[in-house]
Amino acid sequence: MDFYGGPVHPTPPFNAPAARRLREALGMAPGHVAYGLAAQYGLRISAETVIAWERGLATPGERELTALAGVLWCAPGELLAAAATLREHRMTRDLTVDDLARQLGMTGASYLRMEETGRWRGNEKQSAALCRALGLTAAQFLTATGRDEELAELLSSAVTTRWQAYVRPVAKVVPLDRALIQNVLEQLHTDYQALMVSTLSWSSTGQERSGSTGDAGRAFLARVVEQFWRTAGV
Fold it and tell me: SMART domains, from UniProt (predicted)?
C-alpha cells in the first residue's frame, strides 16, 4: 500500500544499460554504488543486487531508483526507458504525486486515483497543465491517459459521418487548440470522402468503416489516428 492507501505499482521501465554506462563513466564499481545507497539513503542494497539491476535480472523500486539516480549523479529519467504511463512520465520528471497535483490544481489523492487507473478525468485546463508539467506531446498525453481507443472511435465517426459534430468531443480528449482540431477534422473528412469516391482505398469493400470488427476494423482505426496526428502536425 502507498501513502494514500492505494496499491503498490509495478516499477517503471528500468534502463539497465544506462545504469551501467553511468556508473562506469564515474569510475565506480558496483560496490561503490551499494555503499552510496546505504550511506546516503539508508538502503541496504548489495553489490550483487546492483549488478543484477545492470544485467536486467532485477529491477529497482521507485525509492531505489530515485536513490540510484542520486548516487550516479543523474536524473531519475536517465535510468528509465521510454515512458508510457502517467506514473512513468511523472517519475521521469522526478515529481512526487503531491508536487504534480499542486501544479494541476487538485489533491494528491484525486490525481493518484487517475494515475492508478490510467484514466484521466481532469478538465481541459488541467489537461493542458499536465502536458506542460510532464512535457507531453498531444500523442503522448493520449497514450498516458488511456484515451487512444476513444480518440480512434471519435475520428472514425467524424470521417464517415458529419465531422462538425465531433469537434467538441475530440477537443475534450485531445489537448489541442479547438480551431486546429476543426481544420484537421474537416481535412480528414474531405480526404476520406474523396478516396471513397475515387478508389475506395480506405475502405475497399466497406469492411473497414467505423463499427466494423476484426483486423480490418482495427487497421482502419489505426490509419485514421495516424492521419490525424500527421495532419495536425504534432
Answer: HTH_XRE (SM00530)
**Range list of H helices, 55-137:** 62-71, 86-92, 97-104, 108-117, 124-134
Which residue has 549488478 as its cell numbers? 51
- Give pLDDT tens digits for 91-110: 888 899 999 999 999 999 99
Is pTM beyond 0.70 here? no
Residue 187, CA distances (Å) to 152, 160, 227 in order: 16, 12, 10
Q: Could you report the per-residue pLDDT of 25-50, keeping only the tens digit for each?
A: 888 999 999 999 999 999 999 999 99
The per-residue pLDDT for range 51-73, each reduced to its tens digit, is 999 998 999 988 899 999 999 99
Torsion region of 42: left, alpha or beta (phi above 0 gives left; psi -120 to 50 gives alpha)? left
- Roughly what angle, to the nearest 10 degrees, separates helices 97-104 and 108-117? 110
CA angle 169, 165, 161 (to 5 degrees): 115
